[in-house]
Specification:
This protein is an alpha/beta fold. The protein has a domain of 156 residues: Purple Acid Phosphatase, chain A, domain 2 (4-Layer Sandwich), CATH 3.60.21.10. Helices cover 32% and strands 23% of the residues. The protein has eight helices and ten strands. A five-stranded mixed β-sheet has the order 3-2-1-9-10.
């Protein structure tokens, strides 16, 4: 079995399309949240995810779009979240509202746990690749799973702790590891578990122009060129 792992498309349609085009054949695609936020094409991204039958968990920007609760957001993120909420169709907002905080999947003999932030704080906790072993162990100690898939940081991660494989596929729509190419991963489940992190180029110039044309903060466009 092979599973496509994505996270944080963030209303970036060009990046999302590029990832889906580059993705090899997989049995299913799962998304660790934040379909929307930051970018200028939230409806198009939501509708593409729906058309692919993806399994998606709630991200903090998805939640903000549904509730308009932007406490804890920086000014640019808050502005984009409110704009997104106003721009999304009622049908797409209702779809976002159905997202669970986490998902448990049985993949053959292995159990997978999918969440946006962390098991102990599904929406807001950042688990970065350099997190100390003790903190990482504490974050996943209560999860009955062989594989834990996270999003939120927009930074690829592949760590083993307490017999659990912790994966972050990186950011599709707004990478933050100083590589502007869209990020995703493929999980192969056979006798061994193999994770392949992949990057793909997309049309950043046009994406940035759309963000500016929508009246969103210019910083959200500029940072795409730098992967930060």
């Amino acid at each position: 079995m092979r599973v496509g792992l994505i996270a944080d498309p963030h209303s970036n349609l060009a990046a999302f399309r590029a990832v889906l085009k580059d993705l090899p054949h997989v049995d299913k695609i799962i998304c660790a949240g934040d379909l929307v936020g930051y970018g200028a094409e939230p409806n198009e991204v939501v509708e593409l995810a729906r058309s692919k039958g993806m399994m998606v968990v709630m991200g903090n920007h998805d939640y903000a779009a549904v509730t308009r609760d932007v406490r804890g957001f920086n000014p640019q993120a808050a502005e984009a979240a409110i704009w997104t909420s106003k721009t999304l169709t009622r049908e797409n907002l209702e779809y976002l509202a159905t997202f669970p905080s986490h998902l448990r999947l049985n993949l053959g003999k292995r159990k997978l746990y999918l969440v946006h932030g962390s098991p102990r704080d599904p929406l807001n906790e950042y688990i970065f690749p350099d997190v100390p072993n003790r903190e990482l162990a504490d974050a996943v100690k209560d999860v009955d799973a062989d594989i834990v898939v996270l999003g939120h940081t927009h930074v690829p991660m592949n760590r083993m702790i307490m017999g659990k494989l912790i994966i972050n596929p990186g950011g599709v729509g707004q990478p933050r590891d100083r590589d502007p190419k869209a990020s995703y991963a493929v999980l192969a489940l056979g006798k061994k578990v193999v994770v392949e992190h992949k990057r793909v180029e997309y049309d950043i110039e046009t994406t940035a122009k759309k963000i500016k044309a929508a009246g969103l903060p210019e910083e959200l466009a500029t940072r795409l060129f730098f992967g930060w």
